[in-house]
Design goal:
single chain; alpha/beta; Rossmann fold; 7-stranded parallel beta sheet; 45% helix; EC 1.1.1.47; NAD(P)-bd_dom_sf; KR_dom; oxidoreductase
């Protein structure tokens, strides 16, 4: 039986970008702990597969097709989730993308696209979900940063800037919303085996070998490695944890 400290039965979670990759790993963790899930994404085929996966875990899951860079679309998404489930307890801001170019080659529209998708969307979703999170009595926000919140990379200019911003945004929200009993934390994934990083391995020569050489765990991460941290940061077990940025990286960020 799930400990009451980690029991999410009756809770409702929104996971942006929850139809694949790390987002799906996070959503699976929450579903296994009993939370009902709203999967937010733009690819309807992937979302349908995700909610089928989550539904097999004994919870209610819905897909909401949404462009998280569009404030009106996000407002409609929040309204639908509240109407469908009656509440919002957990918001995971996971939607993200990257354009791999050095800073002198990156165009302004490419910069804006990455910042809007990775950082501004977290602001919009959090702002609009705030009333429901406050009303829940113990809201949880989890923002997905990156090891690029700590390190820089020549090929991740806008991505690194957006993920560094995620950490500072997390801290600001944690301070602002503590009186409302809303905890706000960030997860910093390391090198995880996803569609996004498979593309990076094709574009960046030697990346695979360098990652394995620096990661003490000796492997790339798997999306299911995020189930536990998702449950912890969404549950009463983390009620006195706020404003943190927790690496989930197999030791990559502490390797000398």
């Amino acid at each position: 039986m799930t400990s009451s400290r980690f029991d999410l039965r009756g809770k409702v979670a929104i996971v942006t970008g929850g139809n694949g990759g790390i987002g799906l790993g996070l959503a699976r963790g929450l579903a296994d702990a009993g939370a009902n899930i709203a999967v937010v994404g733009r690819n309807e085929t992937k979302s349908a597969a995700a909610i089928a996966d989550l539904g097999q875990r004994g919870v209610k899951a819905i897909a909401v097709t949404t462009d998280v860079t569009d404030q009106a679309a996000v407002a409609a998404m929040i309204d639908r989730v509240v109407k469908e489930f009656g509440r919002i307890d957990i918001l995971i801001n996971n939607a993200g993308m990257s354009i791999r170019k050095p800073p002198h080659e990156l165009e302004l529209d490419e910069w804006n696209k990455v910042i809007d998708t990775n950082l501004t969307s977290a602001f919009v979703c959090s702002k609009l979900a705030y009333p429901a999170l406050k009303a829940s009595g113990n809201g949880k926000v989890i923002n997905i940063g990156s090891m690029m919140s700590i390190f820089g990379a020549s090929f991740a200019t806008a991505y690194a800037a957006s993920k560094g911003g995620i950490v500072q945004y997390t801290r600001a929200c944690a301070n602002a919303w503590a009186p409302d009993n809303i905890q706000v934390n960030a997860i910093l994934p390391g090198w995880i085996d996803t569609d996004l990083t498979r593309g990076a391995r094709q574009q960046v020569s030697g990346l695979h070998e360098r990652v394995l050489a620096r990661t003490p765990a000796g492997r790339w991460g798997d999306i299911d490695d995020f189930a536990g941290i998702a449950v912890f940061l969404s549950s009463p077990a983390s009620n006195f944890v706020t404003g943190t940025a927790i690496p989930v990286d197999g030791g990559f960020s502490v390797m000398a």
